[in-house]
Structures are given as C-alpha cells and as structure tokens.
From TrEMBL:
Protein name as catalogued: ABC transporter ATP-binding protein
One GO CC term, this protein: ATP-binding cassette (ABC) transporter complex, substrate-binding subunit-containing
ABC transporter domain ranges (all copies): 4-241
Pfam families in the cross-refs: ABC_tran, TOBE_2
GO molecular function, one term: ATP hydrolysis activity
Keyword annotations from UniProtKB, A to Z: ATP-binding, Nucleotide-binding, Transport
PANTHER family with a match to the protein in the record: MALTODEXTRIN IMPORT ATP-BINDING PROTEIN MSMX (PTHR43875), OSMOPROTECTIVE COMPOUNDS UPTAKE ATP-BINDING PROTEIN GGTA (PTHR43875:SF1)
PROSITE patterns: ABC_TRANSPORTER_1, ABC_TRANSPORTER_2
Domain of life of the source: Bacteria
Lineage of source species: Bacteria, Bacillati, Actinomycetota, Actinomycetes, Streptosporangiales
Length: 374
C-alpha cells in the first residue's frame, strides 16, 4: 500500500461546526500511525474520511497516485473499493452468526468461494488466537475475545490498510495490555499500514511508529513517539503526551537559574519565554537546604499528596500557585504538608512562548554557550 496523503482537508458539518481544519498529513506505507487527541479533536472524523464513510468539505485524500477523495476534481471512491479494513469501538459483531460466520462475512460479501472463505477465516482466527471459539456466538465470548473476532474479520479480507477506531476503550486494563501486544504483533507480521485512533497517550506511545496529535480539528505535531515525548512542538503536545503530564512553570515565577537566563538572553529570546516545562520523572526532590547543583533550576514546594504505585512514588507538590508532580523510585520520606525543594538540570527544561509554541530546549542550542564557557 503506497503512502496515504491528506492535503488541505477540511470537514465542516451543516451546523457550522468545523471538525477538521486544513489538515495536511502523510501516513507512510507500512507505518503504525496513531491519531491522538482529546474527545472532539477531529481524529475519528479524519479516520472516517480515510475510510470513505465521511466526505471532506475541501481538500484531497490520495493513496500513492490514486485519488480517493477530491471535491475540486469531483472524485469519490466508495468505502468498499478502497481496500481498507475498519474496526469500530463497539466491535459490531452479528449476534446471530457464529465467530466463524462473523469472520467470513466480509469474504462472503466479496463472493469468495466457500472452501477458500473457510480457510481464510480460520487462518485469521488463529492469528488472533481465538480459533477454538469458531463455533460460539458473540454473546458467549468475553470482551477481549469479541475484540479479537472483530480484528479477525478485518484481517480475513487481507486489506492493505487497517483502520482502528478506539478498539480497546471498552476493555479492562489487563485485556488492553494484551491487545496492545497483539496489535503490535499483527502489524509486525502483516506489514500493513495501520491507522489507529485513540485518546490514550499510553496506547500511542507503546504501539505507534508515528503519532499525529490533534486539537480542535488542527494537527499539532507528527513525529515518532520518543521524538514527540522529548521534543514536543508546543505546550499542548507537551502536556498531553506523558502521564503525569509535564509540569509547567510560568516564566515570571520560574526563578530561572543564572546559567539558563544567560543562555536565553544570549539567544535574544528570553523575553519570548512564557513558561517552561519539566517532566515529572526528571524533577528531583531534596530536603530544604539540601544540596542542589549550582546550574539547576530549583524551587521550594509543599507536599500535598504521596501516591505509592509499587515500583515508584508519585508526589504532588505545590510551589507558590503552581501544581507539580514528581516521580521518584526512592521513598520520598515526606508526607502532606512537608516542605521539600524540587529541582531540575537545565538540559531537562523545555521552553515555550506566550503563544504556547516551543522556543527551545536547553540541549538544542546550548552547545555553543557551553563551548564558549570552557
């Protein structure tokens, strides 16, 4: 399957609501691309337009050199001719058909001969490890098994593109973990292009080769998971990707370390810094008056809550009027109301402008300053 490209795609509804605004997105061949964002951001609408269930108001959707949707050119390819498989959030299994019957359904619609249809259905069921349930009905299956059957039905028709609309949201935590592993394995085995819609950033981080973050119908950033985590394009992405979210400290309250201030002033953009962010896992804790590196940013804080998770502790802090979180793998030895000093090294800080756009991260431009200081 060639690359899927959305160019200047807009989707407006009759009510006047703009679900998707001027979207330019490239989904590489063979990638596992997650459309990530909060409810109402336009991710499901985008998926449905790729599938052909919705038509864009403006713009063009192509697969390689083949135009699937173009308002300007008057082109629209119906869903059944796009060679794409779609799994819905609610599974959409036929209650009167057995697992085998549900899996064969798409093949039956394509008039595949009975013997070949049966063989392909069983192959797909074996691939998702529910072949032993072939003669059962959906009502006799657990939620995780029903999800696997929905995947098998899609895989049986051997589509070039797999479109998944929040398929794990109805599962419990254990089944979600199992299905993440299963989906990743299926992608590795088939080499198909996967477009996966989710609001769960953990799903996106653990499964995707590329993540496209959306907000209010607009694309915020497209990048591999770790690149997005380490270099978010703006404040929205920084706070949305990560759990707990990145701590944000207002520029006027930051008490920036002198070395960081010199760096920002040298670049001439210190005044453009509206806030800076630091991930909870790199925020360090020290006793009041404890040793803190000279170059570090630090701030006095009061402990509000300590949440043990087993291998680590999540500590909620209040520094002036700013709520912050720190993750530590050592017992913090403090409880609600206790005073601590939180700090972070300059290279761990992310700078954002008043408009929320990324200004810089220390490690992106500080090298010349470091060299000059030697």
């Amino acid at each position: 399957m060639p690359t899927i490209t959305l160019s200047g795609v807009v989707k407006n509804y009759v009510s006047g609501h703009a679900a998707v605004k001027d979207l330019d997105l490239t989904i590489p061949d063979g990638s596992f691309t997650c459309l990530l964002g909060p409810s109402g951001c336009g991710k499901t609408t985008t998926l449905r337009m790729i599938a052909g269930l919705e038509q864009p108001t403006l713009g063009e959707i192509t697969v390689g050199d083949r135009v699937l949707d173009s308002v300007e050119k008057g082109v629209y390819v119906p869903p059944e001719k796009r060679d794409m498989g779609l799994v819905f959030q609610n599974y959409a299994l036929w209650p009167h058909l057995t697992v085998r019957g549900n899996t064969e359904f798409g093949l039956r619609m394509r008039k595949v001969p009975a013997e070949r249809r049966k063989a392909r259905a069983m192959e797909a069921l074996e691939k998702v490890q529910v072949a032993e349930c072939a003669d059962r009905y959906p009502s006799q299956l657990s939620g995780g098994q029903q999800q696997r059957v929905a995947l098998a039905r899609m895989l049986a028709v051997d589509p070039d593109v797999l479109l998944l609309d929040e398929p794990l949201s109805n599962l419990d935590a254990r089944l979600r973990l199992e299905m993440r592993t299963e989906l990743k394995r299926i992608h590795d085995e088939t080499g198909a292009t996967v477009v996966f819609v989710t609001h769960d950033q953990m799903e996106a981080m653990t499964m995707a080769t590329h993540i496209a973050v959306m907000c209010d119908g607009e694309l915020q950033q497209v990048a591999p998971p770790m690149e997005m985590y380490e270099r978010p394009a703006n404040r929205f992405v920084a706070e949305f990707v990560g759990s707990p979210p990145m701590n944000m400290v207002p520029g006027e309250q930051a008490g920036l370390a002198s070395s960081l201030q010199r760096f920002a002033e040298k670049r001439g953009d210190f005044g453009a810094v509206g806030c800076f962010g630091v991930r909870p896992e790199v925020l360090r804790l020290a006793a009041p008056g404890g040793a803190v590196p000279d170059s570090a940013w630090s701030e006095d804080a009061i402990v509000e809550t300590v949440l043990p998770t087993g291998p680590s502790w999540t500590v909620e802090l209040r520094a002036h009027d700013t709520r912050m979180f720190a993750i530590t793998h050592e017992d913090p030895g403090a409880g609600p109301g206790d005073a601590l000093r939180c700090w972070a090294r300059p290279e761990a800080l992310h700078l954002f402008g008043a408009d929320g756009a990324r200004v810089a991260a220390w490690d992106e431009a500080v090298a010349p300053v470091r060299e000059a200081a030697k």
